[in-house]
Every structure is written in C-alpha cells, then in structure tokens.
Specification:
Layout lengths: L1 H5 L5 E4 H18 L11 H17 L7 H4 L3 H43 L4 H6 L11 H32 L1 H14 L24 H4 L20 H18 E5 L6 E3 L3 E3 L4 E6 L6
Antiparallel strand pairs: 1-5, 2-5, 3-4
Helix pairs in contact: 2-7, 3-5, 5-7, 7-10, 8-10
Keywords: Heme, Iron, Metal-binding, Monooxygenase, Oxidoreductase
Protein name: Leukotriene-B4 omega-hydroxylase 3-like
Pfam families: p450
C-alpha cells in the first residue's frame, strides 16, 4: 500500500533496504510478539533501537580495540548501545511478563484452545510452552534471548536477501517476467491473499534451485543459513517470508535498475553504499 501511494504518479526511485527493512521488522513484531507496530508508517522507539543496535555492532566490529567491553562502554557509541539494549530488553520483558500472567489463569490446554480459535500463537507463546532438555520451563532470560535473536537476526538478513533478489530481477527482466507469470499461475482463480507459505556462483541463475537441479546437492553448497546443530533458527520463516513478499510485490509492480550500479558494502550483511536504489512502477495490467 505504501509503494502504491508513492508510485501513484507514475514511478518512484526507492531505496530497497530502507523500505524492506521496515517491512521485515513490522512482520517480525507481529509474528514474535503479536504486536502491530505499524513502523512502516510511523516512528517506533523500539524499531529505532533495533536499527541503531545493528549499525553499532557493525561499527564496533571494525575496531578491534573496542571489542573490549570496558573500553567500548566508555565511548559515546558504547553508551548508546547500552541504552538501546535496555529499551529492547524492557519491551521484551514486558511482553513476557504480560503473557505469563495469562498462563496460570487458563492452564496450558485452555490457553492453546483459545489461541487456536484466533490463530495467533506467536513465538513468545511457543517459548513459554517449551521445556528444556531436563523438562524445565524456560526462564524469562532464556525467552528474551531467543526472542531478541529472532528479531535481530531476522530483519536485516531477510531484508538483504529480498533487496538483492529484486536488484537481480531488475537487472534480468526476462527472469522477473517469468517469475511473475509463475506467481500468476499459482494464483489462477484465487486472490493474492491466498498465497501460502508452503511453497552464488558468479552468474545469476535462479533455475539452479529447481528441484531437479538440487537433487544430490550437499546442503553445504548453499550456506546462508549454515547447517548442523547451530544452523539458523529462522530458516523456514525467512524463506517463507521472502517468497510471499516477493510474489505479492511482483503481482503489483515492475522493478527496474537505477542508472548507477550499487557499490557493495560487506557488513554484518551485504549492503549497498548509499542504499540499493531501484525504480518501481505499477503494473498497468494483470492481477493487482
């Protein structure tokens, strides 16, 4: 809706990272906390803290002397880091405490039945109902750590993936159109809202991920989520979110490359110096 408003006069030149990061944060707030942040349309103190913390971590990483906590917390950035951490932790703690108060009143079975009716079982609910390897409930600190990890690692990474996918599709319009047709085929006689979440080398080739081309391929050949017992906790969530967001975007818009080639900047994620700018224009025909 935001992009449709921005391109209502024709086309718009947009920084993918700026817009998509807010979208992924909005989605995570809803799925982790069942909280409608509406951060794409209005400022959010919590979201601002998340974004600043990500930037501060990246800056600190480039200065080995600041890896020492005692020195870092004496700096202006270190004090901002502590302030933002307190704000984020306070928000998560408040949600956990409020949610814990509902458990004893209803009991686990009643709680799950109530949630099933509204389909709003979120990440905090799952953690509150989980047990560790010894059968004990997770502590508030355990739950906060998992929720914060999901928020921090789930917004920038997914936003980067989506931004660079749109960049490559803008640079390769033949693949963009083929992808758009695939989405339309999927949605034949259905509404866009019905999309379900079930569905580098040196050359851009999306067909390398076709099922027949992946047979027998080692999981280590595709490393963004890693493998083994410490692989990404949000892998399925991230892939589902990217597929749905990409499909719904291509149904409504055509993305075109900017006049200038982006200068890639490897940080905690792969960014573009000065933003990843693409031209977005509404589709004149087809499903909207």
């Amino acid at each position: 809706a935001k992009w449709q408003r921005l391109v209502s006069q024709g086309s718009a030149n947009l920084d993918m990272f700026e817009h998509i990061s807010l979208m992924t944060l909005d989605s995570l707030q809803k799925c982790v906390f069942s909280f409608d942040s509406n951060c794409q349309e209005k400022p959010s103190e919590y979201i601002a803290a998340i974004l600043e913390l990500s930037a501060l971590v990246s800056k600190r990483q480039r200065h080995p002397i600041l890896h020492v906590d005692l020195l870092y917390y004496l700096t202006a950035n270190g004090r901002r880091f502590l302030r933002d951490c307190r704000l984020v932790h306070d928000f998560t703690d408040a949600v956990i405490q409020e949610r814990r108060r509902t458990l004893p009143d209803h009991g686990v079975d009643d709680f799950l039945k109530a949630k099933a009716k509204t389909k709003t079982l979120d990440f905090i609910d799952v953690l509150l109902l989980s047990k560790d390897e010894d059968g004990k409930d997770l502590s508030d600190e355990d739950i906060r750590a998992e929720a914060d990890t999901f928020m921090f690692e789930g917004h920038d990474t997914t936003a980067s993936g989506l931004s660079w996918v749109l960049y490559n599709l803008a640079k390769h319009p033949e693949y963009q159109e083929r992808c758009r047709q695939e989405v339309r085929e999927l949605l034949r006689d259905r509404e866009p809202q019905e999309i379900e979440c079930s569905f580098l080398p040196q050359v851009y080739d999306p067909f390398r991920f076709d099922p027949e081309n992946m047979k027998g391929r080692s999981p280590l050949a595709f490393i963004p989520f890693s493998v083994g017992p410490r692989n990404c906790i949000g892998q399925t969530f991230a892939m589902s979110e990217m597929k749905v967001a990409l499909a719904l975007t291509l149904l409504r818009f055509r993305v075109l490359p900017d006049d200038e080639e982006p200068r890639r900047t490897p940080e905690l994620i792969l960014r573009a110096e000065g933003g990843l700018w693409l031209r977005v224009e509404p589709l004149s025909a087809g499903p909207q």
